[in-house]
Amino acid sequence: MKVDSNVFVNANVVVRHLRAAASSDFAEGVVRLSETPSRDRLSERYTPFDKYPERTFPDYIDGTAYFLSGDIARRVYTVSHYVRYLNWDDVFLGMVLKKLGVKLSGAHGRRFNVLAPREAWDLCKMNTALTIKIFMQSGGPQYYEAITTLAKRMREINDMDSVVCVRGTYVISWAREKERS
Predict the structure, then answer these.
(1) What pLDDT band is residue 174 in, cutting at 50, 70 and 90?
(2) ∠91-2-10 over CA atoms, to 5°?
(3) pTM above 0.85?
(4) What is the pLDDT of the chain when averaged over all its residues?
(5) Phi, psi for residue 56 in degrees, rounded to 5
(6) pLDDT, tens only, 43-98
(7) How many CB atoms lie within 10 A of CB 151?
(8) E strands along the chain, which residues?
(9) Parallel, antiparallel, or unpaired for β 169-173 and 162-166?
(10) CA triplet 156, 157, 162: central angle to 5 degrees?
(11) Strands of 60-68's sheet, edge to edge?
């Protein structure tokens, strides 16, 4: 699993998800299809023609958070030495995966990168989110408050026996919490 530094990993959900996933030959995350390179010199992701001359990038997994099975990770390492380097790690990985013929899975894309703080406080989304991306500048008091609140919500969810969501509302079972008392 790879995540950016501003991403919170919902460990319990990730463990359950990976136990049910294929043990080999998978690459999963938010799949970006037919993205075009930015040719604007002022863009943060400026990609000059001499670095990447094609009109579109290969399909790739967004670099914010993704899973690779161990066999794919080993093959990526081996083949990456033979693919022309591009400084966008997610696009470069997409180039390598394309060369390997790996099919990307975006089936659970909506469970990656739930937005914090706006969506992250929703128990229904938090209960199924694999990762939660914190969309604010790091270092400030609001950032640390968001992280603290997020950690608190995650502890609350982990203490719940279950969260059943129906059309945005939820019913919570606190059986495990009651048993500890």
Answers:
(1) very low
(2) 130
(3) no
(4) 82
(5) -130, 155
(6) 999 999 999 999 999 999 999 899 999 999 999 999 999 999 999 999 999 999 99
(7) 11
(8) 2-3, 7-9, 27-32, 60-68, 104-105, 114-116, 131-134, 162-166, 169-173
(9) antiparallel
(10) 130
(11) 2-3, 60-68, 27-32, 104-105
Q: Assign 164 to helix, strand or coil.
A: strand
Alpha-carbon distance 143 to 145, whole Å? Answer: 5
Provide the CA 29 distance to its chain's centre, in angstroms: 6
Domain regions of the chain by residue span: 10-105, 110-180
- 120 half-sphere exposure, CB direction, 13 A CA radius: 26
**Highest averaged pLDDT of the listed ranges 2-6, 79-83, 128-132, 177-181:** 79-83
Name the residue type at position 84.
R
Q: Dihedral sign, CA of 16, 17, 20, 23?
A: negative
Judge contact between 66 and 97, C-beta under 8 A: no
Q: Which residues pair with 169 in a beta bridge?
A: 166
- Using DSSP's 3-state secondary structure scheme, residue 88 falls into coil
Question: How many other β-carbons are positioned within 10 Å of the β-carbon of residue 14?
Answer: 18
- DSSP bridge pairs for 164: 171
What's the one-letter identity of residue 83?
V
